[in-house]
Amino acid sequence: MSARHEGEVPPTTRAPHTDHEHARRAGGVLVAGIGNLFLGDDGFGPEVVRRLVDGSGGPLPAGVRVVDYGIRGMHLAYDLLDGYDALVLVDACPGGGPPGELTVLEIGPDEIGTGEFDAHGMNPVAVLANLDHLGGTLPLTRLVGCTPADVGEGIGLSEAVAAAVPEAVSVVRALLHRLPAAAVTSSRDPQPAPTSASDPHRRT
């Protein structure tokens, strides 16, 4: 397994969440796990989010909210209207490398272009591209992606992608500490119990 990173970004979600609820409308960082647990390696994002919620590696910086959106694109779009300062997407995505390779990308308006928004599916590009039509603005956005080996029907990650999950957790944590929107002081407040927005339908 190898990791590839863009620029100076280090090898770096509304449902399970680990944050102060007041941060939702006062900036902060949203970490969004994306993917369908019923399509093999497409469950990479939700698994990374689960590890973050479980506290792997210690507490997250204050002002960080972690959510498993599954394939609920409308849910992510509406949550982004709350006005986050930064967004970290975690998703399985082809990177041109071997299965399990991690890629960290910066996503801006020039990268997302336009896309048809399906309220019943999850196309991150379409969600972000149509955010302005919903009255929101694109925050500082990073993508932590993993090259999948198999996204066929079935539950469970492939060996290569499962092996990449711990590194991805570390990558997200390192990225959060570099984002200007995240406070570097770790939260010591009790964490709310996680919930899930995952959906068994096929991802689009």
Please, could you describe this protein's structure?
The chain is of the alpha/beta class and about 200 residues long. Helix content is about 25%, strand content about 20%. The protein is built from five helices and six strands. It has helices at about 45-55, 75-80, 110, 125-130, 160-180; strands spanning about 5, 30-35, 65-70, 85-90, 100-105, 140-145. A six-stranded mixed sheet has the order 1-5-6-4-2-3, sandwiched between helices. Helix 1 crosses helix 5. Mean pLDDT is about 75; it is low at about 1-25 and about 185-204.
Q: Topology, please?
A:
Elements: E1 3-5, E2 29-34, H1 44-53, E3 64-70, H2 73-80, E4 86-92, E5 102-107, H3 109-112, H4 124-129, E6 140-146, H5 159-178
Helix pairs in contact: 1-5
Give the biggest beta sheet: 6 strands, mixed
State which percent range the strand residues make up: 15-25%
Structural class by SSE content = alpha/beta
Low-confidence stretches: 1-26, 183-204
Determine Rg (CA atoms, Å): 15 Å
Number of strands: 6
Number of DSSP helices?
5
- For the residues shown, what is the average pLDDT? 75
Distance between the termini: 27 Å
Shape: globular
Strand line-up across the major sheet: 1-5-6-4-2-3
Classify the helix fraction into a percent range: 10-25%
SSE pattern: EEHEHEEHHEH
